[in-house]
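One chain shown below:
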Amino acid sequence: MSTANVSGNNTAVANNSVLFDGDNKAKSATNKKPSTPTTVVLPTKEKETSKPVEATAPTPAASEMLPIQKHIPTIREMQEKAEKMHLLSEKYNNLSDKKQDLDLFSISHDGDTARMRLTDAKGQHFESSNPVCIRQLIDIWKKTYTDAMAKTEEEMRQLMEA
């Protein structure tokens, strides 16, 4: 490669590049050797093979098509749907109230004064005042209530879409 000096201190490689002089005017720099043309080979597309044409059934004329009828619910169906929605709404409200009570309990108690007592159907009980265990139990209950509320909400949405 050879370099050329163009108007002062500017030098550049002279393989068909553009040079700028001190006034930022573009000049073409050519190599003293004759340039050889560059050949670019582009990939060719493969010839598509002809695909067999599948026979399709003729479409019926507009007069032959029947309009799609939307199901209109009966009064009884609407009452059943309303009753289910009411029950799901009560379930959601109960879960929400329990979760709120649990949130208030976890905010109001300090780690040292809380006691947990579990009692089974036979009257046997277990007591603990371990703050770590109580915190973990509260977290488990919160997650359980949150998951149950999300499931109930989804059931309500499905009922409304049906």
Notes: The chain has two domains: 1-33, 75-161. The first strand starts at residue 3 and ends at 6. The beta strands are 3-6, 10-13, 17-20, 26-29, 116-119, 125-128. Residues 63 and 118 are 72 Å apart (CA to CA).
